[in-house]
Specification:
heterodimer; A: mainly beta; six-stranded mixed beta sheet; three-stranded antiparallel beta sheet; 9 strands; 44% strand; B: mainly beta; four-stranded antiparallel beta sheet
């Protein structure tokens, strides 16, 4: 099962906006509106920050937003803050009733 | 508050077996699908398996199909992962997850470390 493709790293200055892409196929990202995004700080468990492409769980900052176009989903972090420095993973439901994660993106706040 | 507590990890030789457990609280366990995700040291996340609330439907990643078995005991609010024929590449931190829908992780435990080495 091939992982979804994410950039290895993205960086930005405090206050800036950054976007992380997540590219799959018509069998996963492009075929379903079931894309999730997770934030993982070093040594910690992942935390769900976006589900079903663009929905935020209760308690997640509205600085995080998600979208999708074709086979590519995107996570945008606006008003970048030092606490946003972490690894970010996308995931998608697949046609074979499994889930596939992205390769992960390290976000650095300059 | 959802709480997921994994246990059962440890050091095992290649070809050996191990059973992981995940105790759940803070929600009606039988109403939700549950799953396992792993993360090899310094690597990304890998979805492993999920099981419906009733236990009647299970799904596996190709990498573990035929070697790992997911199960649950709704009377004990506990999820299991029986791991057989373990390989060095199965070394990872194994996370228990409460699932949204049928397979997508929503809430995560803190993980239990499995090391496969001779």
């Amino acid at each position: 099962q091939s992982a979804l493709t994410q950039p290895a790293s993205v960086s930005g200055s405090p206050g800036q906006s950054i976007a992380i892409s997540c590219t799959g196929t018509t069998s996963d990202v492009g075929g379903y509106n079931y894309v999730s995004w997770y934030q993982q700080h070093p040594g910690k468990a992942p935390k769900l920050i976006i589900y079903d492409v663009s929905n935020r769980p209760s308690g997640v900052s509205n600085r995080f937003s998600g979208s999708k176009s074709g086979n590519t989903a995107s996570l945008t972090i606006s008003g970048l803050q030092a606490e946003d420095e972490a690894d970010y993973y996308c995931s998608s439901y697949k046609s074979d009733t499994t889930e596939v994660f992205g390769t992960g993106t390290k976000v650095t706040v300059l | 508050e959802v709480q997921l507590v994994e246990s059962g990890g440890g050091l095992v030789h290649p070809g050996g077996s191990l059973r992981l457990s995940c105790g759940a609280s803070g929600f009606t366990f039988s109403d939700y699908a549950m799953g396992w995700v792993r993360q090899a040291p310094g690597k990304g996340l890998e979805w492993i398996s999920a099981i419906r609330g009733s236990g009647g439907s299970v799904n596996y990643a190709d990498s573990v199909k035929g070697r790992f078995t997911i199960s649950r005991d709704n009377s004990k609010n506990t999820l299991y992962l029986q791991m057989n024929s373990l390989r060095v590449e199965d070394t990872a931190l194994y996370y228990c997850t409460k699932v949204r829908g049928t397979v997508s992780p929503n809430d995560w435990g803190q993980g239990t470390l499995v090391t496969v080495s001779s």
